[in-house]
Amino acid sequence: MNDTKLLTGQKSVIGAGARFSGYISPASTLEVHGVVKADVIADTLEIAQTGHITGNAEIGLCVVNGEFKGRLNARSIWLMKTARISGEIEYGALQMDRGAALNCHIKHNWEADSSDDMVELPLLNVENRDGDE
After folding, report:
1. Fewer Cβ within 10 Å of end Cβ, the chain: N or C?
2. pLDDT above 60 (res 18)
């Protein structure tokens, strides 16, 4: 099997109360109920409400109910109401339920073309706010 191709149909689970440190790759689906300190590459990452991950992650779909600290790069992220994210996230699509907490740098993945160049606008004259000339 090619190392760059992720496994299909296999699910790995880190149970509640379990602790894992290291590197997880490749994984089809990783479900975390315990504590993980690792870099992760997976098609799908599910962080349960009791789950905590610290590290870097390259993910297809990430569903967060628990806590993530670090750098998360995902095509699609779904933050449930109990999610807590700190660090940096880079995403293609983001859905966030009311109550989810973000304390991070957020960057949307898109390819800017030349027509997206910023337009310079003239500065407003804010020195004379009373209308006196």
Report:
1. C
2. yes
